Amino acid sequence: MSLVAMVLVGAFVSSLIEDAVTRNSGASTALYVDSVIAPLLPDMLTAQELDDTVSRALDETLEQGALGNRLMSFRLWRADGTVLYSNDKSIQGKRFELSDDLKTAFSGKMVAQFNRLEDREDEAELASGKPLLEIYNPVLQPWSGQVVAVSEFYEIANDFQRSLNQARLHSWMAVAAFTLAFFIVLSALILRGSRTIEEQRRALRRRVDELSALLSQNQTLRARVHRASQRATALNESHLRRIGADLHDGPAQLVAFASLRLDSNALVDPAAPASLREREIAAIKASLDEAMNEIRTICNGLVLPQIEAASLAEILERSVRAHEQRTGSRVHLSMADMPEHLSPSAKICIYRFVQEGLNNSYRHGGGVEQRVVQRLEGDRISIEVSDGGSGFDPHAVGPTSLGLAGLRERIESLGGTFQLQSSTQGTLVSMSLSSEEIQQT
Asked: Could you count the other beta carbons within 10 Å of the beta carbon of residue 366?
């Protein structure tokens, strides 16, 4: 496409240069010839033909000197197409149809053409094979400016042809240089644009990959949350059944025992000894006190303390102190840097994790070397609960185990991780939450 444009532009510019050079050269030659020939011509308004004296003067002028070497042929035309004079005597006096160039010249305009010999009277010039500059110059009456005749002459244009060829060459070189420069600049712009498009395409691809990864993560999290929600519903039912079982097997049995003792003979028979009656009453009171203690214990495990406004350090200290007071055991608490903000759901999760972890440690590990460690690792907060008991087999714990399963579901529902490790040297349970997640939850 660029080469086609270069050819078209070069041809157009070359044509303009050729026309301009031809017109200027023809004008200078016409002025020179007119300055030599005009004094020899009679008043063409009064003399419609040339006499022999004028013809001989023209012959001598056109055959000798610089003008004779410069001009190959010369004709003088009348407005009706008659050749008034010609150095080719075979066409002198003949009448031809006016060509377009002659008509233009008779209208008062000079016409110059290079190597365009197309008229009937141009056979001799065409046969010469020389480069010819054909010029039609109007002959004007000096005092009126009226065109009275047209001089047609052919200049041998060897120098003109060399100049014209050089002008053509220079014009083509200029066009080629401009086209090359334009092509280089255009190629640079296209290359730069291609690089920009490629960079944008890579950036867009990275962005799409990131969005795809985020979408995959969101789908995974949504699936986890959905599963956690389903399991949480089942676990809530299991918790309710466990609470019902604890109430039935503990306080309910003690209250039933006390109710049966109220119907004993020691209390019903007035004749029963006072000492026996007192023992029965004491047994009933002891049974009711034990039932009340168990009810309080169950309630303490269900009811959360006021932790909404508490910091992470206060939550950890409260859970540890409550466990120590309830069990009489000792717990070592270690805390590091604290996050500035915790959501209520994260606070509840951490409190229940420490509470359940210490309860399991005391129940199954005997409360030996109980430890609670809190760390801040990058943007994640981790909490560990460990003991130095005999441990157990984690694979033997079924998926329906309420304590561990409840902890796992609660932590994973917040986007966190739960881990359990146990050996003969002790047991360790740990949780980890992203600080960004626990602040936005």
From this structure: 14
What pLDDT is recorded for position 408?
A: 82
Burial of 335 (0-12, 13-18, 19+ CB in 10 A): middle
What amino acid is encoded at 104 in this protein? T
- Residue 9 CB neighbours (<10 A): 15
- Report the DSSP pairing between strands 71-77 and 83-86: antiparallel
Q: How far is CA 12 from CA 19, 107, 172, 310, in A?
A: 11, 28, 10, 89
Q: What does the pLDDT average to over 85-99? A: 83
Neighbour tally for 169: CB within 10 Å: 11
Helix/strand/coil (H/E/C) assignment for every residue in 175-232: HHHHHHHHHHHHHHHHHHHHHHHHHHHHHHHHHHHHHHHHHHHHHHHHHHHHHHHHHH
Which H or E element spans position 417? strand 417-423
Compute the distance between CA of residue 351 and CA of residue 378 in angstroms, rounded to an integer: 22
Q: For residue 128, how many other CB atoms are within 10 A of its CB?
A: 13
Q: Which two tokens stand for residue 310?
A: 């508490």
- Using DSSP bridges, classify how beta strands 370-377 and 380-387 pair: parallel, antiparallel or unpaired: antiparallel
How far is it, in rounded angstroms, from Cα 272 to Cα 283?
16
Q: Over the chain, what is the mean pLDDT?
A: 77
Sign of CA dihedral 242, 246, 249, 251: negative
pLDDT of residue 178: 79
Closest listed residue to residue 384, CA positions, set 369, 394, 373: 373
Distance of CA 352 to the CA centre of its chain: 48
> What would the pLDDT profile of 162-177 be if each residue is shown by its tens digit?
776 777 777 778 777 8
Instruction: Give CA–CA dist 177/9, Å, rounded.
Output: 12
Mean pLDDT value of segment 170-191: 82
**What's the Rg (C-alpha) of the chain?**
60
Residue 383 CA to residue 411 CA, distance in Å, equals 12
- Amino acid 386: pLDDT: 92
- The 10s digit of each residue's pLDDT in 259-293 is 767 777 767 677 777 777 777 787 778 778 777 87
* Residues 141/45, Cβ–Cβ less than 8 Å: yes
